[in-house]
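The instructor's notes for this session suggest beginning with a concrete chain rather than abstract definitions. Hand out the sequence below and ask the class to guess, before any prediction is shown, which regions might be ordered.
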Amino acid sequence: MKFRYLFLLLLISPLCLAQNIESFGVFGGFNIPFTIDQGLKKDLRFYGKFTLRGTPFGFNYGYDKTGYGFVVTPQFLQIGQKYTIHNTAGGEVGIRDIKMNFISVPVALKIHINDIAFFRLSMIAALNFQYLFKGEETLTHSAAKLKYPPGVHVPTDPGYIQVYDGVFVPEVHDQVHVSNDKFKPFQLFAAVGLRSDFDLNDDWSLNFDGRANFGIFDPRKSDYLEQLKQPADAPDLYGQRRDVYLAGTIGIARIIQIKEKFHHRGGGKMVGNKYFPKERGRKKPKS
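After discussion, reveal the predicted structure:
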């Protein structure tokens, strides 16, 4: 019998202690981007390189109920992978740097895996609405001989010399290869991940957030993609592109607890924090 009462107590205790938790805070972190480009994959000049980018700052607003919650995390974000440039002998001679700076507004649903009073671990599903305010691809390499794929345009600037087994190229530094006007201004990402909120006390919470983010659309404009499809004189080999990045952030938030209202059945009234039950009428004495 005691075990039944204990089970019943555990079952109803979350309902008795149910409360809404609202929070405001700041965070920062990093991300690991992957530029999945089928055209670059076919170009033997370029090989993907491990890249670490920053998520230097952002703000969060969270609202949690029992079992689930929501969190909005507007942030400044830089993504885009670096590629090493290889010469005809396979040696590394430079870097192709794909950089996209976004203002991102992820809106996420949280499903709590646990609901301990001071610690919440949640699964995250989100949509990220992102505005690109600067995007470009630059080339930095030493003087070398590179193998240009058939159909890809070879610059006619001084220092570019075509030979039977490649192209001699001059040293360049941060040469713009794809300019900002070739990128779409808006992008949409879908994300999944985990988030933990650890309450330091009644007023402050520490949070850790890890997500995998998947770009839904090609980030480049359609007219630029049409240019890549031309059989000759294209700046790169054509191929679909999607951006993926793994993001990790840490933040601190000011929390406000909003307790669920408790409705009394006695028909009394609240005065300040005290409850006064309704005074019951006395029975009239029999005459």
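Then share the key points. Confidence is low (pLDDT under 50) at residues 1-17, 261-265. The longest helix spans residues 2-16.
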